[in-house]
Amino acid sequence: NGVIVNDEPVHYRMFQKVLAEQGIPLSQEEYAERYLAMDDRGCFQAVLHAQGRPVNAGVISRLIARKAQLYAETIQREFELFPGAAEFVKAAAQEYPLALATGALRQEAEYLLRQAGLEREFSVMVTAEDTTAGKPDPEVYRLALERLNAKRPTYRPPIPPAGCLVVEDSRHGVAGAHTAGMKCLAVTNSYSAEELAEADLVVPTLENLQIHRVASLFPSEGIPRPLPKKA
């Protein structure tokens, strides 16, 4: 979300609608400042807490289900890939093992990847259902790396955090990646370059971004080993 698929505006509108049904307003500025990088559970919990509303599992589950329903109905009409995103993913997958680490629900992530034609490019997927803490907590990145290493042949050394690159669009994502000990490439799809300045590399788009430029972020001893070329 916000990196491959331009659906952050959809998520915002669906959060806004569901919260409005509860009598809670949510402005674009407030969403971008506090909640954009959160998963659904974290966002609803944080908003209810800020409003002094009761926060319990039943209420949160109902809000998540309602928002998922609205999102599914809307994204079918408004699906939009960011320019160059699919091409960048496919090029990276030819060289390195990829994991999708997202705060989206699994059914949403799977749908988006199918629509983008990218479901075969990621060997690992970590979604909201797999984690207990949202960004900027590094859990999603650490779990993704753990699962990538579990798939590696036993004769190959495990990938260290320092050998990983996280591609993000949010400030919380950049912070979480660095807390996990990973490099971060930030794309200015959701925030300005100034707001994402803590990233190791900031680009306006993934379009025409060459893999060698990304690899240059790593010292020579820390560059991840490319995969064998596919036949």
Description:
It is a single chain. The chain has 231 residues and is mainly alpha-helical. The protein is built from nine helices and five strands; from the N terminus they run αααααβαβαβαββα. It has helices spanning 8-21, 28-35, 40-50, 57-78, 85-93, 106-116, 139-151, 171-179, 211-215, and strands spanning 99-101, 124-126, 165-168, 183-187, 201-203. The strands form two sheets. Strands 3-4-5 form a three-stranded parallel beta sheet, with helices on one face. β1, α6 and β2 (124-126) form a beta-alpha-beta unit. α1 packs across α4 (57-78). The mean pLDDT is 92.
Note the topology.
Layout: H1 8-21, H2 28-35, H3 40-50, H4 57-78, H5 85-93, E1 99-101, H6 106-116, E2 124-126, H7 139-151, E3 165-168, H8 171-179, E4 183-187, E5 201-203, H9 211-215
Parallel strand pairs: 1-2, 3-4, 4-5
Helix pairs in contact: 1-4, 3-4
Helix percentage range: 40-55%
Broad structural category? mainly alpha
Largest sheet: 3 strands, parallel
Question: Outline, from the CA principal axes?
Answer: globular
Distance between the termini: 31 Å
Task: Write a compact overview of the structure shown.
This protein is mostly helical and 231 residues long.
Features:
single chain, mainly alpha, 3-stranded parallel sheet, globular
